[in-house]
Amino acid sequence: MTSALRLEKITPDNVDAALALRVHPRQEKNVAPVSTSLAEAYAFGDTAWPRLIFDGEQLVGFLMAFIDIRWAPKKDPDDRRSGLWRLNIVADKQGSGYGRFAVEAVRDEVRGRGGSRMYVSWEPGEDGPGDFYRKLGFRETGETSGGQTVGVLDV
């Protein structure tokens, strides 16, 4: 990993590269493809924050945050949360610090918008990213969302 890490908005110039991004095959069951995320970003408007992760000129990942989203509107319409919605790191680039960079970038965005907590959810199980998120300081909340474990980090 170099110091040339940066986030970029999805544009007409990079959308094809974004759509071609693939995680490791054993992780495909744990995270939606970028195409699904971009459709959700379109549907959710300003509450979705999709970005590409570049190391120099090389695309190494995709993240999408949720900003001030209504978490469970039927249960508690006032419960609004921000956090990491999706994280897709290119299969052969995993374990290189890009995931940590992505989580820290979302943390900084949430903090910069006045948030004090950052949420994430993950598929439980052996190939799931639970250990990764716990190492970064996320605590399990005891909640689930769509069958996924919910974690929180104070920012």
Describe what you observe in this structure.
This protein is an alpha+beta fold. Helices cover 25% and strands 39% of the residues. It is built from four helices and seven strands. It has helices spanning 15-20, 34-44, 98-112, 130-135, and strands spanning 5-8, 48-55, 58-72, 76-89, 117-122, 139-145, 148-154. A seven-stranded mixed sheet has the order 1-2-3-4-5-7-6, sandwiched between helices. Strand 4, helix 3 and strand 5 (117-122) form a beta-alpha-beta unit. It is globular and about 40 Å long. It starts with a strand and ends with a strand. The mean pLDDT is 94.
Strand order of the largest sheet: 1-2-3-4-5-7-6
Most strands sheet: 7 strands, mixed
Q: Count the E strands.
A: 7
Approximately how much beta-strand content do the residues carry?
Answer: 35-45%
- First-residue to last-residue Cα separation: 24 Å
Low-confidence stretches: none
Radius of gyration: 15 Å
Q: Tally the helices: what do you get?
A: 4
What is the share of helical residues? Answer: 10-25%
Task: Summarize the helix and strand pattern as letters.
Answer: EHHEEEHEHEE
Give average pLDDT, whole number: 94
Judged by helices, strands and strand pairing, the structural class is alpha+beta
Basic shape: globular
Describe the structure using short key phrases.
39% strand; alpha+beta; single chain; 7 strands; 7-stranded mixed β-sheet; 155 residues
